[in-house]
């Protein structure tokens, strides 16, 4: 049994996730196809084996949440918190993603072909996010580590309170958040952008991207700054 | 007669009530440094608390149980609403969430050992789960905090329950704070941050924003754990009646309400003393909310924030809590604010180390500095040796046993074979404030301010 199909119009989400947690690793199932997701929340959360899950339709909140070593491809759009807290593996949204995409991700690769909503990559702790379209406001808020590539534009307050994460933006940035700054691209940055675009299957010239990183002026709180950053 | 014969020497120096020495000190400090004060512990001001309530022991109208002989159950089950593996505890007294980072690894291990020996649970904190605490704790509650530092699915699966932390009593509306001196390389690595920087945790969760979102988030945790583990929701006490209702709406198995006496390792003093409501008031509102939803007994309630003694536990249970959680009292049992520490078979005086922090045993709230003179709230390699897991666990076990014995003593006196049978009717208040907040009659009267006429 290498391939299994679940029609969420016929079986419950619980049956699907239970299969993915228990039977899939035990029986060595490599591919699971989910039909009629109809925006169900929490599809394929907590994967802990190298299974390939295809979701044919739109997913609700937290699709592929806390993924470890699995691959989730959504042939549709994803709701809030897609791939939140992913540890490793890959989540690919063929459509658009809502708010908090890749929130607090520790590892792995999140690819969003379309646009992402507010707070994409918030609290990022590692791993990579590549967005084919634009990201909404407050993206990469308090992002600690990891990399994010935005092929379109970024909204307001990009990278507010950034720690060590690095952001690359091709289009316009409506405004930078507190302590975020645009920095010169180095050869290593061009190579990074190319590597991530290749991994995501997107084609752009790395030379079109800007680098955004932390000025690190908020690492120690300074009363004399009068809370104006 | 000259006016010098009776010189008008004032015999009383009048200190201003509004501008007392404490206030003058505060203004001088603000003027000198332009900085607010950050400190540890919870609210220090006088608040209506459990000391303002007393029990009506059995007499002619009630029948007591023999002091320590007759059986009085303290077993406590948490998470019976949805979880297939509820938490079963021997005593209704749990260890509150305190982070590795704020506490040393030795302390986390001591908490686990003592809790396991007496049959109760410990709780992780901001920064994730350490191997030491997982190995030493039979029952470990894993917190999911706004920062998500170190949060990962393996630890979710390793935990016995998950606690979604919305806020804490010392700072409802604020995130955690760990100043650079405590962000050691190990702490930094667990939190994916550079070592030595001031670490200010997020105050909002990154992937949900309100109670309807939280319901989906909790559903995610249930799916992830195959519906086995209880999910707690912890709130700092503010609009407790509404917050508890929303936590129940979100699908919590257990609601944890932390009052303003609840401790912290580092928060602005203005936050600690001026934001939030007392535990006594919050507990009454929480129980009201559960009763209003007909969820009493289905969703369990844990109350924390200034629970210190067996009588405190008994009063909390009588008012309607299923269990209590203790942080500060536990640290004091380990030696917090003690004038000496035990190392290499001897007591060592710690008063000069307190003095170096500008304080003294009994007054210390300098957890935020990481220079705890008794080795508890520190990441310093030398200081942390002042409390070994063995010594800490022994003292904490004694403390928890004492609380439990006091609890059953009171329950028996009230004629209860089970501490969970204590009820509000067993209590009266000594002050009008406590009567109003706890909604029990003022002793010797039938008066509950705001409820019954005088």
Folded structure, characterized:
The complex is a heterodimer of chains A (229) and B (454). Chain A has one domain: Glutamate synthase, alpha subunit, C-terminal domain (Pectate Lyase C-like, 3 Solenoid). Helix content of chain A is 13%, strand content 23%. Chain A has helices at residues 13-27, 187-200; strands spanning 3-7, 31-35, 52-56, 71-74, 90-93, 109-112, 125-131, 145-150, 166-169, 180-183, 210-214. In chain A, strands 1-2-3-4-5-6-7-8-9-11-10 form an eleven-stranded mixed beta sheet, covered by helices on one side. The longest helix of chain A is centred in the N-terminal third of the chain and has 15 residues, at 13-27. Chain A is elongated and about 60 Å long. Chain A starts with a strand and ends in a 15-residue tail after the last strand. The model of chain A has no long low-confidence stretch (mean pLDDT 96). Chain B has 454 residues and is an alpha/beta fold. Chain B has a single domain (50-422), classed as TIM Barrel, CATH 3.20.20.70. In chain B, 32% of the residues lie in helices and 14% in strands. Chain B has 14 helices and 18 strands. In chain B, the strands form six sheets. Chain B has an eight-stranded parallel beta sheet with strand order 5-15-14-12-11-8-7-6. In chain B, helix 10 (310-319) links the parallel strand 14 (300-304) and strand 15 (323-326). Chain B is globular and about 75 Å long. Chain B starts with 20 loop residues before the first helix and ends in a 16-residue tail after the last helix. Chain A binds chain B through residues 13-14, 17-18, 21-22, 41-42, 45-46, 48, 60-62, 65-66, 68, 80-81, 84-85, 87, 100, 103-104, 106, 119, 122-123, 125-126, 141-142, 144-145, 163-164, 219-221, 223-224, and chain B through 33-35, 147-149, 151-154, 156-157, 180, 191-194, 197-198, 200, 202, 206-208, 213, 216-217, 219-220, 223-227.
